[in-house]
Amino acid sequence: MPETLAIVNCSQLVTLAGARHPRTGADLRQLAVVEDGAMLVRDESIEAVGRRREIEGLLTAGCEVVDAGGRVVLPGFVDAHTHPVFAGIRANEFEQRSSGATYREIAARGGGIRSTVRATRNASLSDLVKIGKRYADWFLRCGTTTIEAKSGYGLTLEDELKILRAIKQLNDDTPLRYVPTFLGAHDVPVEYKTRRHVYVNLVINEMLPRVVEEKLAEYCDVFCEEDVFTTDETWQILSAARCHGLGLRVHADQLSLSGGAKLAADLNTATADHLECTDATGVMALKAAKVQPVLLPASVYALGSNVYPAARQMIDAGLSVVLATDFNPGSSPTPSMPMVLSLACTQMKMTPAEAITAATINAAYSLGRGDELGSLEKGKRADFVIHEAADYRELAYWFGIEHPWRVYARGREVFARR
Ligand code: NIG
Ligand code: FE
User: What is the pTM of this model?
Assistant: First the structure.
């Protein structure tokens, strides 16, 4: 017997129904809101969406009915850029930055990514899964039901495999869905500092083939940045990843204009992420190549910078903008998409509707899951959230609180505020 569930009495059912492609321009503001909406779920999928009257007419005996109490209902957030598996935290560096040290200075002293790499190498697979479950819970409580999850704190073959296996196990053991990305080129490990080409070759010739053979990643990413991986090295690694059939993403122009956006366009990656320092030429290149920009304002905020990516310019240029948290222990210690929505509106002048589109359907497309996730439409996966608000704009307006009242993943309640 299939199980059915009806959600009724939604002040606004924010469906994001619409064209089956990433949204751009004025379409970013079209949320396809159904007032006094309701939704019917069968097993793991959405069966029908409409006005309360229409849906109530479809109810059969045995259907569980949830009264949303006049609250707003949205698709679960899709967080398309996170680093969720690591050991240790970096509150010490946070304190140093609060006293004026910069992210780059701390990294140059052996802190930053390297300090998390040391802690993560010392952790076992089961340690990482245990730590990761705590963060999975945080994502769900914030209304996120799918995350893209990068490795990158191991930087040896075995440690990168260990992180990717932890991601796989977290995907199996928690209600959160993980889309795995191999980020072996997150930093050049200290032991290869004077022989960086040897590390690049290790990533290409040993790590990538194993990751692919064990089916541990869908995407490959590189941190392309001055002092990290050059555009040439990034090109070599991503080209090899493409030959193995992986999708491509790239950390581009975060701390300096290093040519990352242009490279993303030349390689036709799925996404170019960060883009704080990208210039107009880079934006036009992304547009021509239809690369989706993934903007991470929480990392700008947490680093105490005021250089946010030029979201308005990107939207005006016709780019299909995505928003994500960049959850990690250094530059962005937050799992909160609502916090990201707030920053997108206050600091990057996106409208609440544009921000919600960027955090749901556009993010889903950036992960190759636009047909499955990111909107509330018949046939899509029943990942949705009843938020403690009556109007979708409140999600970006009230900040510093947890909005979700109930979170559902695959049609099952996975979080409830009691
Ligand atoms: O996306 N930019 C590179 N990687 C992360 C930071 C990781 C860290 O500091 O641990 C980022 O901001
Ligand atoms: Fe990142």
Answer: 0.98
